[in-house]
């Protein structure tokens, strides 16, 4: 079989078109995923590379999932696990690549922008009496590729703000503006693409409060099909949605402090469907996934149809903890899950923030039914250097 990058991209494009037309069924999704996996491995084998994307929607067009590493905001540093480490089985005690920077206080989130720069959302330590201020730190692809020689690079750009209390997660919109949740200030801060170009201490272009107040806002994501913004309230059992038109009309760039009324509010269904929601992300089929950082420590999926009106929907899929055996001991596959991320073919990585810290990876076909899923990859142990891990993202893999 003679597979080229154009073949894979064409397959991706057909899937994206079908998904946007509402024609992707579970069986079709499984079939196309198998095809993409096979094609991606072939492309990787012949040495084809691809520019990684942080957004699942943009990642549909990426070529080889084998070239995506997993980046993790971790305690006082940032880790990258290689593609090979993410396909290695259970109880992997493997060492990652490290970014150690004097600039970091308590990294909480990581995101790639459209140019391949890695942004670290650092909550800092001032909220707990420390001296390191919260900041948005940017590292260029060249810096990431040179980590073997310079493992402690100075951020290419560092953004600080007097308004920051404890920033944790962020998402880029299609124009390159950065929307950041401040868990400690109960706001969403918006920085324009222009503001992100130079190191500075600045006020956000927009600071959004909610009429129904945010309570520890954390996960934040744009719905690819509509442009609507979803925000998880980690301090409660709710997820808010703000329509694209609401944002454009009432929170344009430069508007300063604004208060918005949520257009949709999703609440717990009475059976622990939304419990201290941490991360939010959309899959390739347009469904919203959330991690529940409180018991029962699940990952839940809501279909696009469940996101259009206020209510307490029952998740279409719930992934529950599976006990992974290691000698005489067992460790749960989901243990206070924080960050969740999809790679470009639909594999999901979940970061477990409770000790012993770990990472679980699930493949697309597992995620169609849910239940107590045995992860395909389970990374755990001292060599991983996992220490208070939080957010994660798939992105460019830079060979050591």
Structure description:
The chain has helices at residues 5-20, 26-45, 56-59, 141-145, 244-250; strands at 68-74, 77-81, 97-99, 107-112, 118-122, 135-139, 157-160, 167-172, 178-182, 187-191, 200-201, 206-210, 217-222, 229-233, 238-242, 256-260, 264-267, 277-282, 288-292, 299-302, 317-320, 323-326, 329-332, 337-342, 348-352, 358-362, 371-372, 377-380, 389-396. The radius of gyration is 20 Å and the shape is globular. The model is unreliable at 1-64 (pLDDT under 50). It has 5 helices and 29 strands. By secondary structure, it is mainly beta. Strands 4-5-6-7-11 form a 5-stranded mixed sheet. The chain has a 5-stranded mixed sheet with strand order 8-9-10-12-16, with helices on one face. A 5-stranded mixed sheet has the order 18-19-20-21-27, with no helix packed on it.
Secondary-structure topology with pairs:
Layout: H1 5-20, H2 26-45, H3 56-59, E1 68-74, E2 77-81, E3 97-99, E4 107-112, E5 118-122, E6 135-139, H4 141-145, E7 157-160, E8 167-172, E9 178-182, E10 187-191, E11 200-201, E12 206-210, E13 217-222, E14 229-233, E15 238-242, H5 244-250, E16 256-260, E17 264-267, E18 277-282, E19 288-292, E20 299-302, E21 317-320, E22 323-326, E23 329-332, E24 337-342, E25 348-352, E26 358-362, E27 371-372, E28 377-380, E29 389-396
Parallel strand pairs: 7-11, 12-16, 21-27
Antiparallel strand pairs: 1-2, 1-29, 2-3, 4-5, 5-6, 6-7, 8-9, 9-10, 10-12, 13-14, 14-15, 15-17, 18-19, 19-20, 20-21, 22-23, 24-25, 25-26, 26-28
Helix pairs in contact: 1-2
């Amino acid at each position: 079989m003679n597979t080229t990058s154009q073949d894979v991209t064409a397959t991706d494009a057909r899937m994206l078109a079908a998904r946007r037309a509402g024609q992707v069924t579970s069986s079709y999704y499984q079939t196309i995923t198998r095809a993409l996996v096979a094609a991606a491995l072939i492309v990787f084998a012949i040495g084809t590379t691809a520019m990684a994307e942080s957004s699942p929607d943009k990642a549909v067009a990426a070529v080889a999932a084998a070239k995506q590493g997993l980046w993790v905001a971790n305690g006082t540093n940032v880790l990258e696990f290689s593609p090979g480490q993410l396909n290695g089985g259970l109880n992997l005690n493997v060492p990652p690549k490290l970014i150690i920077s004097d600039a970091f206080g308590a990294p909480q989130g990581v995101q790639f922008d459209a140019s391949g720069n890695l942004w670290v959302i650092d909550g800092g330590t001032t909220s707990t009496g420390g001296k390191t201020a919260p900041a948005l730190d940017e590292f260029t692809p060249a810096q990431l590729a040179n980590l073997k020689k310079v493992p402690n690079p100075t951020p290419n750009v560092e953004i600080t703000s007097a308004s920051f209390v404890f920033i944790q997660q962020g998402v880029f919109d299609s124009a390159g503006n950065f929307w950041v949740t401040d868990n400690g200030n109960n706001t969403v801060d918006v920085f324009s693409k222009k503001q992100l170009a130079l190191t500075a201490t600045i006020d956000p272009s927009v600071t959004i409060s909610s009429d129904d107040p945010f309570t520890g806002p954390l996960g934040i994501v744009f719905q690819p099909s509509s442009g609507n913004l979803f925000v998880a309230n980690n301090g409660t059992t709710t997820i808010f949605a703000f329509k694209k038109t609401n944002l454009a009309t009432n929170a344009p760039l430069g508007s300063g402090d604004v208060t918005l009324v949520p257009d949709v509010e999703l609440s717990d269904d009475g059976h622990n469907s939304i419990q201290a929601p941490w991360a939010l992300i959309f899959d390739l089929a347009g469904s919203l996934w959330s991690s529940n950082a409180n018991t029962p420590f699940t990952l839940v999926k809501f279909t696009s149809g469940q996101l259009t009106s206020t209510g307490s929907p029952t998740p279409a899929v719930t992934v529950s903890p599976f006990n992974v055996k290691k000698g005489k001991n067992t460790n749960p596959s989901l243990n206070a899950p924080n960050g969740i991320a999809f790679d470009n073919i639909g594999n999901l990585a979940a970061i477990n923030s409770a000790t012993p810290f770990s990472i679980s990876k699930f493949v697309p076909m597992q995620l169609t039914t849910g239940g107590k899923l045995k992860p395909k990859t389970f990374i755990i142990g001292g060599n991983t250097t996992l220490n208070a891990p939080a957010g994660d993202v798939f992105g460019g893999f830079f060979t050591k």
